[in-house]
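User: Can you recover a sequence for this backbone? Please restate the input before giving your answer.

Assistant: Of course. Working from this structure:
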């Protein structure tokens, strides 16, 4: 499903030939509000996004909205789309928001792009539990209507609690192929783990994927980094089903996990103690050029199995990982630098961040603040926005493309 091309803003005729033929500047803008009143939050975020008023500027090509689930989603989506008129809008609920290097809670964050050399098409796919692949494939079809540009990317926002999240990447790849990078994140619900929301215009969806295909005449950069380090040797996933890892090297997965990582005794008896330990000890999937992270979301103390957010295929290899607040902070700078390096020396005009909520938990447990100080040091007062996710999407080459406990950065020039 795709939206029609947004209506162009009225441009007054000019008698200055040089002015009329000069390219319009490209731009990214951010706005936010922590006003607990929904209408007030929309008004404040829109005013921050367009201080001169939306009618006074060229219409954006796209607006993304990241909302705390504390807000009434249906009301927020309807009022935001009404305020934006024909401008395409997609978004999702979060487990925390990001704006200009600041970590927010219970907020509304808006991110918009516009100017010369951008084209955008949006799409959505609706599914039920276990059908994320179908939903993602339908959402990705918006690429088919995107005008030709030398650079393209597909931004995906998916339900964070609906089946195997790797299926989001697989479904989108069936449409996008190898030539279009995929980037995005899975919606959150402030760690309640009950239900997430996806926004498509004035509609609020569940068990869905929404997408924005962005075409650009200038380079697009993607950075991915997690900072986790390997522990021990790779192991064979000898038995798994869906997101459940049953045995590693023909032994109960939980036993191997706890023994190899030298977990404290309470982690083998208490779900709460296990969760605290697992937050800094994910699993890794070795790829040709990187290691993708799988968050260990829980364990079955009776069957001695591990539960992840996305699948670890039976017959594949995995390895244990560990890290701390220093490695998390280092990954932030690495991802942002990598995204900017992908612009080929052209200055960035804005950035989108998809940051795993489990990374924030590691920093909070260590009483660390200022994760994104390096962004301002690196990029100055660049418009940057994003949200804390239940999983991150970044596929630029090779297999895979779904991540946990990772920061994904998208830079536009």
């Amino acid at each position: 499903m795709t939206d029609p091309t947004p209506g162009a803003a009225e441009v007054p005729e000019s008698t200055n030939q040089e002015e009329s033929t000069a390219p319009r500047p490209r731009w990214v803008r951010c706005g936010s509000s922590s006003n607990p009143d929904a209408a007030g939050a929309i008004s404040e975020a829109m005013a921050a996004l367009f201080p001169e008023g939306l009618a006074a500027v060229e219409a954006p090509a796209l607006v993304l909205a990241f909302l705390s689930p504390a807000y009434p989603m249906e009301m927020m989506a309807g009022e935001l789309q009404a305020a934006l008129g024909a401008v395409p809008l997609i978004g999702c609920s979060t487990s925390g928001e990001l704006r200009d290097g600041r970590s927010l809670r219970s907020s509304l964050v808006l991110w918009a792009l516009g100017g010369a050399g951008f084209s955008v098409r949006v799409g959505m796919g609706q599914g039920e539990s276990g059908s994320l692949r179908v939903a993602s494939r339908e959402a990705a079809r918006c690429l088919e209507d995107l005008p030709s540009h030398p650079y393209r990317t597909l931004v995906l926002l998916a339900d964070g609690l609906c089946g195997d999240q790797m299926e989001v990447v697989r479904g989108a790849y069936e449409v996008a192929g190898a030539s279009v990078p995929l980037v995005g994140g899975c919606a959150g619900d402030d760690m309640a783990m009950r239900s997430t929301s996806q926004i498509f215009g004035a509609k609020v969806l569940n068990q869905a994927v929404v997408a924005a295909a962005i075409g650009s005449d200038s380079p697009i950069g993607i950075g991915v980094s997690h900072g986790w380090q390997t522990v021990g040797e790779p192991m064979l996933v000898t038995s798994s089903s869906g997101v459940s890892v049953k045995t590693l090297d023909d032994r109960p997965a939980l036993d191997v996990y706890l023994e190899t990582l030298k977990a404290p005794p309470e982690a083998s008896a208490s779900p709460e103690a296990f969760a605290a330990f697992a937050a800094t000890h994910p699993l890794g999937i070795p790829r040709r050029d990187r290691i993708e992270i799988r968050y260990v979301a829980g364990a079955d103390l009776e069957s001695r199995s591990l539960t992840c957010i996305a699948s670890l295929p039976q017959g594949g290899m995995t390895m244990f990982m560990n890290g701390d607040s220093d490695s998390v902070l280092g990954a932030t700078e690495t991802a942002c630098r990598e995204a900017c390096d992908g612009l080929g020396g052209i200055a960035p005009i804005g950035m989108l961040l998809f940051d795993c909520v489990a990374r924030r938990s590691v920093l909070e447990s260590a009483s660390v603040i200022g994760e994104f100080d390096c962004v301002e040091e690196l990029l100055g007062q660049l418009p940057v926005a994003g949200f804390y996710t239940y999983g991150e999407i970044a596929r630029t080459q090779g297999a895979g493309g779904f991540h946990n406990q990772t920061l994904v950065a998208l830079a536009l020039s």
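That completes the design. Residues 256 and 262 are 10 Å apart (CA to CA).
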